[in-house]
Design goal:
Blueprint (H helix, E strand, L loop, with lengths): L14 H9 L26 E4 L13 H6 L3 H7 L4 H6 L5 H7 L9 H11 L6 H10 L4 E5 L5 H8 L6 E5 H4 L6 H11 L6 E5 L2 H9 L3 E4 L3 H10 L7 H4 L3
Parallel strand pairs: 1-2, 1-4, 2-3, 4-5
Length: about 250
Amino acid sequence: MALVLRVTAATPLSSSRLSTKMALRPTSSNKTTSNVSFTSKKGGGRKLPILLFDIMDTIVRDPFYHDIPNFFGMSFEELIECKDPTAWIEFEKGFIDEIELSKKFFKDGRPFDLEGLKNCMSRGYSYMDGVEDLLCDLKQNNYEMHAFTNYPNWHTMIEEKLNVSTYLSWMFCSSLYGKRKPDPAFYLEVLRNLKVDPTNCIFVDDRQRNVEAATEVGIIGLHFKNAKVLREDLFRMGIDISIEHRKAHD
């Protein structure tokens, strides 16, 4: 798994940050660097690093690819061909509400059962294999974690189903900011709100382009493949992932 840390030209490189940048270059074996040091004068005494997680297909299974085509009685390819190319993006940015979405979801404006669609999506939400245990271990070790996700206000349906806020906040949802990954402005908005150096943040996403956009503003990016690989990557970076609290209940 490639781990790349870049600093924008507008950000001066101190000797300490330059050392960190050099240490985090990907190796030929494609492994993350061990025991990265996370420090910041702006940390405010918080435990670092701060962990930012994409939600769909990183924390939670995305029903869009299988369940939603089945709901409409279509293949995935047919659904892509029929749906409006911008309606969902506008919904994710909070520019339209669900009623407006229902009117323009399909290019031809055909009506559909909006509540049925929402119920279908809710049934399809589940934690990705092994991810809840990983979040629990990180939470037990007092890491600060936030969702950093492209999703409409329907994230409340995920919360109702899975109680994701047990582990992380829903602080950075696209519908709340009018921005979507990989827009650099969204990443910078996150950093402004967190008030920490970008090198003290780790961002995890299943989409490589979103990870690359994070590294372009100085955030450490990890490409999510599965929970086992992510756990190994975080452990190699020196992230404390004790599981003793779970062993006690086995």
